[in-house]
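Re: the multi-chain job from yesterday

Posting the exact lines I submitted so nobody has to dig through the queue logs.
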Amino acid sequence: MAEPIIQLRGVKKSFGPVNVLKGVDLVVRPGKVTALVGDNGAGKSTLIKGLAGVQPYDEGEVLIDGTHQPLHTPREAQGMGIEVVYQDLALCDNLDIVQNMFLGREETSTGTFDEGRMERDASDALRSLSVRTVKSVRQKVSSLSGGQRQTVAIARAVLKKARVVILDEPTAALGIAQTAQVLDLVKRLAGQGVAVVIISHNLADVFEVADDIAVLYLGQMVAQVDAADTTRDDVVGYITGTKTLTGAPVVDTSVIATGGAQ
Amino acid sequence: MTTTERTEAGPDPLTGDLIGSGVEGGLGDQMSAWWQRVRGGDMGSLPAIGGFIVLSILFSILSPYFLTAGNFANLLNQAATLVMLGMALVFVLLLGEIDLSAGVTGGVGMAIFVVLVDVAHWNWVLSLVLAFVFGIATGALIGFLVARVGIPSFVVTLGLFLGYQGVALSVIGSGGLYRIQVPELIALQNGNLPVWGGWALLVIMLAISAGTSFWDRARRTRAGVPNRAISLVWIKLAVILVLGGVVVYILNLDRSQSVVPVAGVPIVVPVVLAILWVGTFVLDRTKYGRYIYAIGGNTEAARRAGVKVRWIKWWAFVCCSTLAVFAGLLSATRVGSVDAAAGRDIVLSGVAAAVVGGVSLFGGKGRLMNAAVGALVIAVITNGLGLLNLPAGVNFVVTGVVLILAATVDALSRLRSGGARI
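And the result, structure tokens for all chains:
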């Protein structure tokens, strides 16, 4: 099995008295799709924000390619090749596909935009994901469907030569056909050797694309298992806390420390 | 067109080729694609251009003086201030912000200038520089309060709009009025280019237009992406040649009503065109401009993409206030004097000009050219109604109706296309 790109060991994060992450382990491998599932409030977003460098972890080890990395700012995370595609997509409706894909990192020559080069690179990035639904790379993003927008957002990460792409609920707002499109895209992304982390509430989607399923329950990683070795019922059990990998019940379920009362 | 390298990069067995970029096809395809965009609600300046033509025809029927060379030159001088102010406002309107103080900023800038020259007897160049420094400082102040402190620009600039009227009063003195006595500046709104200068201007415009077109094409070819049909470049140049040629020809006719001949393109025309060109260049081809559009479209997306949102906003307000001082200069040199009320009434006309031309108040949509066209429409109304000797009230009513009409056409076209607000 390939060497993991990201390894988290005993990662903790709390906001005031609330312990959101209570010592989480996670392994993300190149070319694999790791699904991160868990109920609302399980700590999925907090875990992702730590990896993105938006909210650094309080404690624990973050190893990228086997070496310790701090990940204190978004820039550091991007420097490591970690890109997050957020749920609300972060695209500008009034700009076209090329402009969105290159936003913040435009190609210039003699001080002005090299539109030709950007257009070609954007087109190449989309084609490398076998995107066929986009008619023109000069379309305004406002004219795109939800699935196409997701595609553009993912292609934007590909364009940055991301090694880890984290997708926050990429199919939440999509119809059936568009969901299939995006899941195909996720598979192709992994096929290119990119490590994909996908957050989803939809277990059908998870089982369709994931190689690995990591389940968070109240700030604890209760299971990270091979998708082929587990069943939907098991995963539901992990998510709701009625089942653990070892069969033993979860011990510490209190989220709020009582502080002075102790 | 497809290199081996690229077919490797794109494992698309169906086409193996670039994704389209909307430049494919001949002239006919381009025309229909453009028509599709217009039908899709992307009207740009079309309603304003239509309005300009309709109003011009109307006024030329109603008044025998409207279509004379003298009135045409006069119209350009009249419009110059509003064109400048409209263009200044575009920078902040694109962000979804507003600058209600743009007019009075120009007024106070000119008040400072004229008092320094007339009372303190300073060198006029230095005084003018100081007036512009005042504009830059005002923009920096607005930018600070909006982008750093986080006060809505409407409130900040409303405060300045009120405050600066007081500043203008105390600089000029109530009821006072100072004449501008610098011939170099008076010429800005009253002088004309020599006859050959008009033709030279036309040649320069053609050269710049052709130069940028072919430079862009060369860069696209180098990158390996297709270009638009070359006939489009020739059409664009032909339009500039014919339209510009007619305008220069008319302006080069003697429009004097006395013995001394008056002819030539007003000096303000190349000045405004130069600022229009530089501003458009910055907005279309540099990161600064692109980020203004991005922030206007989706501030959060721009922030996540690494755009320094506060910094860009700051600079947009500085640009606006600086150009507003220039608009104040054009206004002052046209009137020939500066009083305490200078610039007080014009700012909303500037906003109206931008909106009539197709600039969105929600941000993210519009070009400097839109504001210029919109300003010309409003100037035609003022000019035409003035020729008809109608009471001043009619002017405001008609301008208001045109503004609402333009906004209605825009809104309806989007409603029909079901498109987004932006």
